[in-house]
Design goal:
It holds the Pfam family Hint. This protein is of the alpha+beta class and 460 residues long. The protein is 26% helix and 28% strand. The protein has eight helices and 22 strands. It has helices at residues 5-25, 103-119, 161-171, 352-358, 360-393, 395-400, 424-434, 440-452; strands spanning 50-51, 80-81, 87-89, 100-101, 125-129, 148-153, 175-180, 183-187, 207-209, 215-217, 226-230, 236-260, 265-268, 272-276, 288-291, 300-304, 310-331, 335-338, 341-347, 403-404, 409-412, 415-418. The strands form six sheets. The protein has a six-stranded mixed beta sheet with strand order 1-7-8-6-5-3, with helices on one face. Strands 11, 12, 13, 16 and 17 form a five-stranded antiparallel beta sheet that branches.
Length: 460
Amino acid sequence: MKQSWWARLAQLGLLAVWTCIWLVQGCGPGPGHGIRSRPRKLTAMHYKQFFPNFSENNLGASGRAEGKITRNSEQFNELVCNYNSDIVFKDEENTNADRFMTKRCKDCLNRLAIAVMNQWPGVHLRVTEAWDEDGHHPPGSLHYEGRAVDITTDDRETEKYGLLAQLAVEAGFDWVHYESKYHIHCSVKADHSVAVEKGGCFPGWARVTVAGGVQKSLSSLVPGDRVMALSGTGQVVLSRVLLFLHQDQESWSAFLSLETEDGQRLALTPHHLVFLAPHCRLDSSEYQAQFASRAKTGDCVLIHTAEGQVRPSRIISVSVEESVGVYAPLTEAGTVFVDGVLASSYALVEDHRLAHWAFGPVRHLSSFKQLLWGDWETTKEQQNTDSETACTKSPFHCSTLAAKDKAGLYVSNGTLNKQDNLSEPLRMEMKKKQTSAVHWYARLLYSFGCIFLDSNSFHP
């Protein structure tokens, strides 16, 4: 029986009232709903410690050296000169060489200069070495590319250097090393590196659970699918995918791989949010959304088991891998279990609740569409569920027949196989349809965030 027009109008009125309440409250669901996130306390780094816990030339840190830059090099024109008056440059060569660096290095250094003055009023950041044109460093040093700096404070009080190193991490340097008792070494990725592109994602081969308990790769997921997630009250729910915040079939990216003691392996970009806790407790409010780059061995994540339970599991290893395809589904709940591990839908800003609040209009628009076309969409979703359930009831048939996903891959018995027999026109048509970038609304929010939020809120 169809709803009358006044019933629909009443629903819309309730939605409007709820919208006003939402605008006043300004908070969203997720683990620990209603609990203000605890500020992180800065802990000084130890002598010889480095962060992240990879070698400097690892993809998860500053990446490979790309070649020495000289004043006659074409790449020299890409370096910028830092004239920040709040930074003291040693410049012992009297050539301004210590002022030359990449743009990313300059931005991080300028943020660090502000942090130093805030931490120690009257004290300034001091750069003892930046771009090296005289060959004073070992072959392959990032100093030759303007991607590394050695720093101290201008008062040269060495007891401050441990905290200075941690401030450098917070300022966004991709690798920080308490290298010497007399200076801190910092470096960054190359400006053009794909690893510094904005957006936070999972690889296309990562899997989520849809209706009927069926596993589905992110590359084959479409808006409207319902995936397993965690609600604001800590309940496991099937949450509808509203859109993709980032979807790019062709891009290669560096992913952090978090392996748990229970065998789960979550791969995601360093600037994506994952729920972490120092102790493996069942209380979901203990788990705070943090950048994946902060995850370390011994931290705990929430996993979804085959028995349908949510419980903590300890991370036993953190590694880096490269993979093609980047996907970031936005769910109504703002969370999603990817390969059995709970993660946020959001990235770049280390505040899950703020991000979920900011995407409220998207959820409202989706709810409005559901009110108008709910019957049709329910029928469509039921058809999808029926087909998925049929697959579940015939596991032999589904496992022996290769199922093609949107990325041009065949999934057969758990093995991914690249499809190579497409005609060139069809391949180009698939690429045109499947390849897209960051969603326009996400870009808009990022632009507003750059204006209204403190730079420390963003991922380095």
